Amino acid sequence: MSQTISEFTADLASAAPTPGGGSTAALVGALSSALGEMVGHIRQAKVTDPRLTELLAEMAISRTKMISLIEEDEKSFAAFTEVLQLPKQTEAEKSKRAAAMLQALIVAAEPPLKIAQTATKILTQLNEMKEYSSKSLLSDIGSGTALAEAALKASVLNVYENTRMMKDQAEADRLNQATDETLAAGLKISASLYPAMQKAARGEEV
């Protein structure tokens, strides 16, 4: 959390296993919420609706949630790599390692799923925030939408990568279903919101 942007991106570009796709998705998601919050804070001087203040508070929660998920994702992956080092010579060791592997994969799938769910929540919040925006700020709503969609799409891939390795198909199916539903819900919002904001940025009627 104390890293500079330069330090984080340098670590990301290195051969180190973390940070990776999940952490990056969470960071992008936090930026998407921040853009929506910026619009709301600018508009507070002219909008008296108390709902705007509530929405800003909700988006702040989403942003801080995404930030916390950067570290949560890295920790869960680190735990998974430790399991990979467990011995597997005897049948007992193989059995113990398989059980630990499944649990580690479940734990590792949780942060990216949370990132996807939070990204979908941010898309919902951005969709509402556009109602309080001025025309000149709708491009920021659109930019936030693009980033939230990117965070959503990137994070679900990390869920699928974990479920792909699970030997327990029922558990994999459970996580995949939750992920599929989250992805569909988020993309449904961005599919209408982003084109509308694109038109607004070009000065076209929305």
Automatic annotation (TrEMBL):
InterPro entries: Cyclodeamin/CycHdrlase (IPR007044), Formintransfe-cycloase-like_sf (IPR036178). This is Methenyltetrahydrofolate cyclohydrolase. The lineage of its organism: Bacteria, Bacillati, Bacillota, Bacilli, Lactobacillales. Residues 4-180 form the Cyclodeaminase/cyclohydrolase domain. It holds the Pfam family FTCD_C. It comes from the Bacteria.
